[in-house]
Amino acid sequence: MQRGHRFGTARYNGSAGALAAMGGDGSSSIENPALMNSSTFGGTEFSAHVRADQTDLRSQGLGLGQAYMTGAWRLNSKARLSVGLAYQRDAWFPNFWITSDQNPQTSAVAGWMEQSNGFSPEQLLANGQYDAYVAYMGYLTEVGAGNQYTAYADGVPTYRQVRFAREQSITSWSVPFAIKSEKFSLGVRIERRDGRAQERFTMTESGFNPSGVTKAYQKTVVDSTRWGQWNIRFGVAAQLTDGLRFSAAVQPASTALVQWDYRNRVTPEANSSETNLTAFELYDDQEFRYQLPTVVQFGLAQTLGTKAAVSAVWVYHSKVDALISSPLNYYDLGRQMADELRAHQQFRLGGEYRLTEAWTARGGVQWSESGTDFDDHSSYQMLGLGLGYQERDWGVDLAYNALRASGSIQNPGDGQSWDLGANHQRGTVTYRARF
Q1: What is the model's pTM?
Q2: According to the CATH classification, is domain 10-107+153-363+387-434 in 2.40.160.60?
Q3: Average confidence score pLDDT of the chain
Q4: Cα separation of 280 and 227, whole Å?
Q5: 92 vs 421: CA distance, rounded Å
């Protein structure tokens, strides 16, 4: 929700986003409307790219990642007006992470029992200790005198399997405008962005003590959000020297309407065929209004002679003090959630080299800090390689990207940190035409 799209056109991807400081393609124009790519002609330009993704074990197939159309009209001998329309879709669907353990030394039930001691089931629910509450309602623990708990799933299991998946997708429509002179331009972009994110956790423990009530169980937790937001972004670009271009953009803090759904389900299996244990699911859905950070972006691009260019981009996301602004009874929770968020930076460095009159090679790197105190895959490193072919009125670009994202969660089975590193590869083809 805090971030924009990680990928764009093949020219953009081939430099890992660094050529956004140079302008000249649809993705650059969306990031900074002052760099709209209709900068040297009057007329209309259309570009679209198709992406193909591959993650660790799951192929993402093909998809339309972006479509962009812009038109330019001369206002006078020194200024032009450019107007565009852009569609973007970006998705990240990594493979399920799976780990299994034969004859584990601990049980998640013991941890939930320890959390529960001293609290009634009603207090567990009110305090937000949902896993411990669901363990009680799902016949994994039982409360006794003094709110002391015992285990229905007694002892240590003989087998444990844990699975986790994290997915996200973003779709946006935007309209950029720019007024451009020979060495200076101003732009503004209005964007509607909609997104979806989901985390799914599944754990199975089986082979508990036959003298206990519960033989095995499966636990599934699904945490889903859908959101929609309006953004406005202002941009400026200036040609400082014949070869050096400076650009800057700012997206003021905004709000997003968020639909949150939460499911925490335990399905137990009894040791005795005469005992009927029913599954229990805790379900909640809420609507929130989230506060989103200010985004600032600076770029420098330097041409080297007539064949080469290098560029760098720095992006900064500010910190949010209170994440939830509505409803007000969740304000304190929003401040606690905001304490887990960080101000963070993203860096890009890359360039391109003209091999012949028609062919251009590109390359670049990008790296991003984590936006949270925990590893949620917002920290990543990316390599981009690309090749472009350009005729007078049309062009084709190719790009390959390799991305490594770091993530982890605490495994409730053994209480240890579980590394969830993800490798993501993308191939992109973009076609551009002027007419």
Answers
A1: 0.86
A2: yes
A3: 88
A4: 28
A5: 14
